[in-house]
Amino acid sequence: MKYEVQTNFGRGNWENVWHDGEELAYFASPEEAQAEIDDMIEEMELQGMDYDRDDYMIVQVVDVKTITDNGKKWNVTFDGETLKFYDATNLQDPDGVGSYAFTEHGQFVSSYWLTTFTEGDWKRERGRGLNLNGGVPDWTLTGKSMDEIIDWAEGKQS
Predict the structure, then answer these.
(1) Are 71 and 137 part of one and the same domain?
(2) How many distinct structural domains can be found in the chain?
(3) How far is 74 from 149, CA to CA, in rounded Å?
(4) CA atoms of 30 and 63, how far apart (whole Å)
(5) Dihedrals phi, psi of 104, to nearest 5 degrees
(6) What's the domain range around 148?
(7) Whole-angstrom Cα distance, residue 6 to residue 84?
(8) 102 by DSSP, 3-state: which?
(9) How far apart are CA 113 and CA 116, in angstroms?
(10) Considering just the CA atoms, what is the radius of gyration of the chain in Å?
(11) Which tens digits make up the pLDDT trace of 82-134?
(12) Is the pTM of this model over 0.90?
């Protein structure tokens, strides 16, 4: 898993502007990220600058793969351990109630350990589809899409 430090620029605008040389900085753990924040604030206080700790937050970075299968858009996220599947066909809650199932990635459908795809039957049986939720017939992925997801997941193994 990787984490980033985001800085508050006001009005809900949070961005990762921490750099490690020329690249954006990422951290292996929340503790490592917090140590970086603490060091920066301590250094700024020594220089007489006033920084608010609440202007920094640590966020887990999630990789996202978007696919289209049988006309339905899917977002698959990877958080370092699991693959989570979201129906991204309608990213907004259609009834306007604000259902917990709707996220920035779409409606959550199911999740699996990464190893399910990199070590399980899907790795050995290419072209095999997956029913993500037996109660919703549209929430099924074809074998072609599963092969694409497996290839992407294999690249995520550490």
Answers:
(1) yes
(2) 2
(3) 11
(4) 17
(5) -65, -20
(6) 62-154
(7) 23
(8) strand
(9) 5
(10) 20
(11) 899 999 886 655 555 555 556 778 888 999 988 887 886 766 677 888 899 88
(12) no
Name the residue with tokens 């997801």.
149
In angstroms, the CA 138 to CA 158 distance is 33
Q: Which two tokens stand for residue 41?
A: 């604030």
DSSP state of 125: S
Q: Which of 22, 45, 60 is the last residue of a domain?
A: 60
Asked if 89 contacts 66 with a C-beta cutoff of 8 angstroms, the reply is no
Tokens representing residue 48 in the block: 């007489």
CA 12 to CA 136: how far, in whole Å?
36
79 and 145 housed in the same domain: yes
Q: What is the mean pLDDT of residues 55-74?
A: 90
Beta bridge partners of 78: 63, 83
User: Could you say which DSSP state residue 77 is in?
Assistant: E
